[in-house]
Design a protein that fits this description.
31% of the residues lie in helices and 16% in strands. The chain is α+β, with helices and mostly antiparallel strands. It has one domain: Hypothetical protein (hspc210) (copper amine oxidase-like fold, 2-Layer Sandwich), CATH 3.30.2280.10. A 4-stranded antiparallel beta sheet has the order 1-2-3-4, with helices on one face. Strand 2 (65-70) and strand 3 form a beta hairpin. The longest helix is centred in the last third of the chain and has 23 residues, at 117-139. Pfam families: GSKIP_dom. Residues 34-134 form the GSKIP domain. This is GSKIP protein.
Length: 140
């Protein structure tokens, strides 16, 4: 694995939860602590949903964590985070339903985009504001 020094603001944010060095793999191992990954996911998109937090009830492990999310439409979901990605495992907080066969999403952005039109709007507006700020910055 190659380490480079760069400004995270210059990188395209396509992974969703590996930008912050605090959440990178531990030195010399490929094991990720999914609770740390889940916290990073929550911090990334909390501004665009009504409520979102890592489950304290469902067990977190090195390979799985659960995230509760309430969209701006007031729909509640429990998400499972694994190496495969994120998926809805229940339609309420702190629940899992083995009968649900929902697809995995590579990023939290893609998952929320599919669940919440309000998320899409808020996220899009935040992106536009950031682009406007960058444009002003480059003109000054």
């Amino acid at each position: 694995r190659m380490e480079t020094d760069c400004n995270p603001m210059e990188l395209p944010n396509n992974t969703g939860f590996e930008e912050d060095s605090d959440y990178r793999d531990f030195e010399g191992t490929d094991v990720k602590d999914m609770r740390l990954e889940a916290e990073a996911v929550v911090n990334d998109v909390l501004f665009a949903v009504s409520n979102m937090f890592v489950s304290k009830t469902l067990p977190c492990a090195e390979d799985v964590a659960y995230i509760n999310v309430e969209t701006r439409e007031r729909n509640r979901y429990c998400l499972e985070l694994t190496e495969a990605g994120l998926r809805v495992v229940a339609y309420d907080f702190d629940q899992t339903d083995d009968r649900l066969q929902t697809p995995y999403h590579e990023t939290v952005y893609s998952l929320l985009d599919s669940l919440s039109p309000a998320y899409r709007e808020v996220f899009g507006n935040a992106l536009l504001q950031r682009l406007e700020a960058l444009k002003k910055e480059s003109q000054s």
